[in-house]
Design a protein that fits this description.
It is a single chain. By secondary structure, the chain is an alpha/beta fold. It is built from five helices and seven strands. A hairpin with a 4-residue loop joins strand 3 and strand 4. The chain is globular. It starts with about 25 loop residues before the first helix and ends with a strand. About 20% of the residues are buried.
Length: about 170
């Protein structure tokens, strides 16, 4: 302006500063829930067990044979019978409770291997999959998860490595 006050409007963000990214856990939750997944954060073992019991009641899974578990320690923790089913389709169960290898932040997916799902394929699992994970299993992307998987198991890399996708 030639006459009068001229104030130059400052840009809201500098073109040279990187945008602030959400932490990995927040990014995971956003990606996971945006696809229809349900997420529950528990701060203690007791709250995990209490919330699991509430989930079972809410979904009418009081029958102990309704839920499948493929891991002995996880089964004893949640008081679920360990399935000895070695063949076929597991769709007759209402839900399956699993550990995971890693939680993938940038996609909202879950990295699984034979250590969680044995020889079963993801499509053969029950429709509802309950994943029990710790915050130290959170990784930025699949590549990072695979690198950690290789480091974790060395030359004994597990088979049946898959990512569990949320179905909307």
């Amino acid at each position: 302006k030639f006459f009068g006050n001229y104030t130059r409007k400052k840009p809201d963000k500098s073109l040279y500063l990187q945008s602030k990214e959400d932490p990995l856990d927040i990014t995971f939750v956003k990606n996971f829930t945006s696809k229809g997944g349900l997420f529950l954060f528990c701060e203690s073992a007791k709250s995990t067990l209490d919330n699991f019991k509430k989930i079972c009641i809410e979904n009418n899974w009081e029958d102990p044979t309704a839920i499948l578990c493929l891991d002995e320690s996880l089964g004893s923790y949640f008081d679920i019978k360990l399935s000895n089913q070695s063949l076929g389709n597991l769709k007759s169960f209402k839900a399956v409770v699993l550990y995971c290898e890693y939680i993938i932040s940038n996609t909202g997916k879950i990295l699984l291997s034979e250590h969680q799902i044995k020889h079963f394929k993801i499509p053969n699992l029950p429709e509802t999959v309950i994943i029990v994970a710790k915050s130290n299993q959170l990784v930025k992307d699949v590549s990072h998860g695979m690198t950690l998987l290789k480091n974790k198991y060395g030359k004994e890399i597990p088979t049946n490595i898959s990512t569990l996708n949320v179905k909307s």
